[in-house]
Automatic annotation (TrEMBL):
<dbReference type="InterPro" id="IPR010982">
    <property type="entry name" value="Lambda_DNA-bd_dom_sf"/>
</dbReference>
<protein>
    <submittedName>
        <fullName>Transcriptional regulator</fullName>
    </submittedName>
</protein>
<dbReference type="InterPro" id="IPR001387">
    <property type="entry name" value="Cro/C1-type_HTH"/>
</dbReference>
<feature type="domain" description="HTH cro/C1-type">
    <location>
        <begin position="15"/>
        <end position="70"/>
    </location>
</feature>
<dbReference type="Pfam" id="PF13560">
    <property type="entry name" value="HTH_31"/>
</dbReference>
<dbReference type="GO" id="GO:0003677">
    <property type="term" value="F:DNA binding"/>
</dbReference>
């Protein structure tokens, strides 16, 4: 399923939903992912001051992928295929 997100709150809600769907408590998820429970709570609340590297660690740990849909014009720019 693909969902279009508009802000950090929407991403946080999906992270919480994914964790709960897997029947994992927040403290257990944080421990197995390698982040603090406080950090995971910030992600789930949609805090806009989270560290990108740790955010991607949480997404990966819960089996979530972040896909960016780029406009066609970007494909012709130098470096567009390097990511």
């Amino acid at each position: 399923m693909q969902i279009t997100l508009k802000n950090a709150n929407e991403l946080g809600a999906l992270v919480r939903l994914a964790r709960k769907a897997q029947n994992i408590r927040q403290d257990d998820a944080a421990g197995s992912i390698g982040v603090s429970e406080n950090f995971l709570g910030k992600v789930e609340r949609g805090s806009e001051s989270v560290q990108w590297g740790k955010l991607f660690q949480v997404l990966d740990g819960l089996g979530l992928r972040l896909i960016v849909d780029l406009p066609d014009e970007v494909e012709s720019l130098p470096g567009a295929h390097d990511a």
